[in-house]
Amino acid sequence: MFLIAAILKLADTYLLLAKDVADGDVMGRKSRAMTLEECYDLTMMLVRAFEHSNENGNDDNGDWYSVTHEWLDFIAHKYSLTNSSETQGQIQIALLNTERHAYKLVNCQCTRQDQETDKLWQLRNKNLTLPARSEPCKSSWKPMCTQSLSPVSNFRLIYNAYCRGDDITHWKEVVHDSPRRGNVCRYNHHGDPRLFLSPIKEEQLHTDDPLVVLFHDIVTDKEIQVLTELGSPLLKRASVGENGKKTYSEKRVGETEYLPNDLHSVPEVRHLRQRLAAASELEVDFVGAENLRISSYATSGYFYMHHDSFGLRELHQDNRLATILVYFNDVDGGETIFPLMNLKVEARKGTAVLFFNLKRSGEREAITAHGSCPIITGQKWIATQWIRRYGQEFKYLCGLDARN
Fold it and tell me: How many angstroms separate the most distant Cα atoms in the chain?
């Protein structure tokens, strides 16, 4: 099932064609071509995955319908060149059932378009018997379907487009035409004695509020090795927070877990947290921050657009003020994207990105909605340091502006 979900996610995000995947060409990365039988087996698994998708309504997981339909069309053409009439019939039946299921997902079963699909199928497949519906259409009245069979939100389209590297400035949801960058790339010690001899290599990616800063060479190879070894045995399937509850969702595919308190006394962990505190000028201890969290994303692993802060408009006294993502390795894909700011950060070994989730007033900073693009090849390792509002009273002061 993981393979199917991986292909669905990569195909949906990066617009991979069935022909290219079958030929072993995934965005220029070459591998062995698939046999006709492998293509058929994969397509039928895609069909079954689509039939069980969104059983509780659309969850903005992507356009699974278009991906599944394209593979069915591809394999139907392939088998039309063979003498396997039985397999050709199975593919045509799968195509019809996929269409029917797509109409059902958008509450358009038994509409005029849905039933016209049956008639067209019979005209094209006169040698086959029309499959019975699981729920027969009882009414003679045929309403029109006004829904799209691929009900994908604008945010999902923006996320996919930005991961592909497309221009997204025409979307009204995007706040900036381009990231507002200053010529700020410097060594900085912030007046901290710990950094006098080894200042932070700091690059400001977004100079206006909200501030987004990239730190270079913030973590050593030894620290990466130790943190990976400490976190690996603890990893569990990643969940997301929805409606105040933790749940497993297709919006996040990866593994993650916090390091327990006792492991924060390990020198490499302690030294990294001290360095993050000095670089961010915030308190990174058990009062002002959460425990360090280790995460891993394999091929096709990703995290859809989300906010790290809690709540939409209400104020939470101990909300997540800021986030620091520390990248342990280079990876193909897996960029951290801020589509509403038109900003993308590549996952590069030794770097870390700092961004603020809240305004100084404590309200959510809406445009720091971010996500992680699907991994194309390799495995991505990161550490996440969430910094809370409590403990930052003398570090991150309220502004004089009434809005803050």
Answer: 82
CA–CA separation, 49 vs 66, rounded Å? 13
Length of the chain: 404
pLDDT tens by residue, 25-38: 988 888 899 999 99
Alpha carbons 41 and 31: distance in angstroms, whole number: 18
- E strands along 25-119, which residues? 25-26, 29-30
CA dist 110 and 103 (Å) reads: 8
Terminal Cα-to-Cα distance of the chain (whole angstroms):
48
CA distances 230 to 225, 294, 299, 325, 350, Å, are 9, 9, 22, 17, 18
Type of residue numbered 139: S
CB 247 within 8 A of CB 239: yes
Q: Is the pTM higher than 0.70?
A: yes
- The encoded tokens of residue 403 equal 């809005």
* Secondary-structure class of domain 155-388 per CATH: mainly beta
Burial of 4 (0-12, 13-18, 19+ CB in 10 A): middle
C-alpha dihedral sign at 259, 261, 263, 265: positive
Amino acid making up residue 137: C
Q: CA-CA distances (angstroms) from residue 288 to 75, 140, 283, 365?
A: 56, 65, 5, 19
The confidence band for 51, taking pLDDT boundaries of 50, 70 and 90, is: confident
Q: Side chain identity at 60, as an amino acid letter?
A: D
d(CA 274, CA 292): 12
Domain boundaries of the chain, sorted by first residue: 2-151, 155-388
Is 267 strand, coil or helix?
helix
pLDDT at position 58 is: 46
Helices (H) and strands (E) in the chain, counts: 9, 20
